[in-house]
């Protein structure tokens, strides 16, 4: 599904990513780990086409995304959902409305939205909070609404950049369990995190990145830094 061939990314004279070779298949759950500044977010930004590469190639389902026109990027992004550490729900909208708004922006019809949103909230275990506002939810619940929002256009790939960064242990575990469930339902998931304890519990493929290079690859890995 995703193939990086000798990818190089520079923001400054220093390389943020330095010769990344990587292949991720449909249906995988991959944890991308490494210290702050290692290049995790950069790698995810390249996948959604938010940053451009300075060398190499990135293929998504055999399409070279480095050659995709800017005007065609929205089509690529529609395949992908993304969640961040910084959750950014609309504060004056309920859980339902936050997810519905994302679908409106994508141009979905009202009747479809009315049907789909409850299903997605059910999936993330928050149907009972559909009329609650963000300030009436825990951090973990808010992140689960953000995940529901990211899933609203039915992406084949979900990217999560430090999604548990602002959460306590219990809420973080809830979010990871949800990501695993989404993966089991068929969505490919890439989780970027520096949280060793979380990754060790997941026991899935781990890619360790240090100073812009992949240093360790493990199939049922543990995070070793
Ligand atoms: N917009 C930017 N401009 C300049 N340097 C950047 C920018 N974004 C990231 N970097 C640098 O690229 C490197 C990798 O950053 P990043 O991908 O954010 O790492 P991580 O997500 O693993 O913490 C770091 O050295 C960081 O300072
Ligand atoms: Mg980061």
Distance between the termini: 28 Å
Largest beta sheet: strand ordering: 6-7-8-3-9-10
> What is the overall number of helices?
7
From the 3D structure, determine the CATH topology.
Answer: Rossmann fold
CATH architecture: 3-Layer(aba) Sandwich
Q: What structural category characterises the helix and strand content?
A: alpha/beta
As a percent range, the share of helical residues equals 25-40%
Ligand kinds: adenosine-5'-diphosphate, magnesium ion
Order of helices and strands: EEEHEEHEHHHEHEHEE
CATH superfamily: P-loop containing nucleotide triphosphate hydrolases
Unreliable runs = none
Number of strands: 10
Domain module tally: 1
Question: What is the mean pLDDT?
Answer: 94
Shape: globular
User: Cα-atom Rg, whole angstroms?
Assistant: 17 Å
CATH class: Alpha Beta
Approximate strand percentage: 25-35%
């Amino acid at each position: 599904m995703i193939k990086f061939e000798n990818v190089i990314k520079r923001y400054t004279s220093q390389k943020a990513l330095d010769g990344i070779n990587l292949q991720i298949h449909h249906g995988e759950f991959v944890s991308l780990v490494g210290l702050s500044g290692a290049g995790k977010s950069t790698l995810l930004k390249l996948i959604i086409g938010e940053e451009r590469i300075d060398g190499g190639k990135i293929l998504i389902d055999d399409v070279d995304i480095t050659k995709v026109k800017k005007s065609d990027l929205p089509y690529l992004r529609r395949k992908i959902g993304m969640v961040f550490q910084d959750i950014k729900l609309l504060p004056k909208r309920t859980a339902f409305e936050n997810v519905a708004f994302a679908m409106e922006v994508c141009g979905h019809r009202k009747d479809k939205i009315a049907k789909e949103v409850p299903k997605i909230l059910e999936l993330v275990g928050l149907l009972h909070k559909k009329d609650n506002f963000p300030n009436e939810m825990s951090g973990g619940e808010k992140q689960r609404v953000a995940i529901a929002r990211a899933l609203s256009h039915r992406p084949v790939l979900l990217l999560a950049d430090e999604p548990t960064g602002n959460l306590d242990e219990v809420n973080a575990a809830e979010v990871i369990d949800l990501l695993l469930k989404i993966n089991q339902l068929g969505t490919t998931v890439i989780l970027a995190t520096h949280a060793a304890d979380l990754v060790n519990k997941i026991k899935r493929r781990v890619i360790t990145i240090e100073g812009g290079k992949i240093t360790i690859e493990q199939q049922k890995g543990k995070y070793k830094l």
